[in-house]
Write a structure and sequence with these properties.
30% of the residues lie in helices and 42% in strands. With 132 residues, the chain is of the alpha+beta class. It has a seven-stranded antiparallel sheet. β3 (34-36) and β4 form a beta hairpin. It is globular.
Length: 132
């Protein structure tokens, strides 16, 4: 990932994620994204529609938005890896720390991640474009 992309993604965390339904039509969802150890990630759950879409077809497109300029945006065509193993709660904690700092109660946070069957979407960016 080049410096321009990295810089934009370090300071902008709101995005629209587009996945593909089985019939090929797009499905959109608003998500939060963050760079964790240089890799773009988002949190999801096993029961989300986008998770089932990605398990069938790992392609997704993101539109990352800014809070301060309504005309600035980044499109990112990606291949997505789903991390849902025993370290999923810890991966969610690392993302949370990027997006919101430290949870008020770490033990409760970690239990919620397990109870909600939280997982991590990791975006391998193939191409970017936009006004950023």
């Amino acid at each position: 990932m080049d410096e321009r992309n990295s810089s934009f993604l370090q300071s902008n965390h709101s995005a629209i994620m587009v996945t593909l339904r089985q019939d090929g039509t797009p499905h959109v969802a608003r998500i939060g994204v963050g760079l964790v150890d240089g890799k773009l990630q988002s949190s999801g759950t096993e029961t989300r529609l986008r998770t089932s879409h990605l398990r069938r077809d790992p392609r997704a497109t993101l539109c990352v938005l800014t809070d301060d300029n309504p005309w600035a945006w980044m499109g990112a065509e990606c291949r997505v890896t789903i991390h849902d193993g025993p370290d999923a709660a810890e991966r969610n904690l690392a993302l949370y720390r990027v997006l919101a700092d430290e949870p008020e109660n770490l033990e409760e946070y970690m239990q919620a991640m397990r109870d909600e069957q939280r997982l991590i979407y990791e975006f391998d960016i193939q191409r970017t474009y936009g006004q950023f």
